[in-house]
Amino acid sequence: FRPTTKGWPVATIIDGKALAARMRERAAADVASLAERGISCGLAVVLVGDDQASATYVRSKLRDCEQCGIR
Question: How far is CA 70 from CA 20, 28, 57, in A?
């Protein structure tokens, strides 16, 4: 929130997709920088049970990591 002249907070509308893309670009750059120094990044996941929503979430995180160069 940011104040207005009347002192009431006003919500700021953000573009979530654009923000996420910038965050992925930054993560990819950080991962590449670490790789240049011989440090590899990875993601380990333990999925317990058969919850389809959890499996879907994990798949999306794995896809996001692959886009950033994380194995």
Answer: 16, 8, 17
Q: If you write DSSP's letter for every residue of 11-48 in order, what string do you get?
A: -----HHHHHHHHHHHHHHHHHHHHHTT----------
d(C-alpha 57, C-alpha 61), whole Å: 6
- Between 16 and 11, residue with greater pLDDT: 16
Pairing of strands 9-10, 2-3: antiparallel
Q: Which has the closest alpha carbon to 70: 61, 18, 11? A: 61
- Residue 3 makes CB contacts below 8 A (sequence gap 6+) with 9, 10
Q: Are 30 and 1 in contact (CB under 8 A)?
A: no
pTM: 0.71
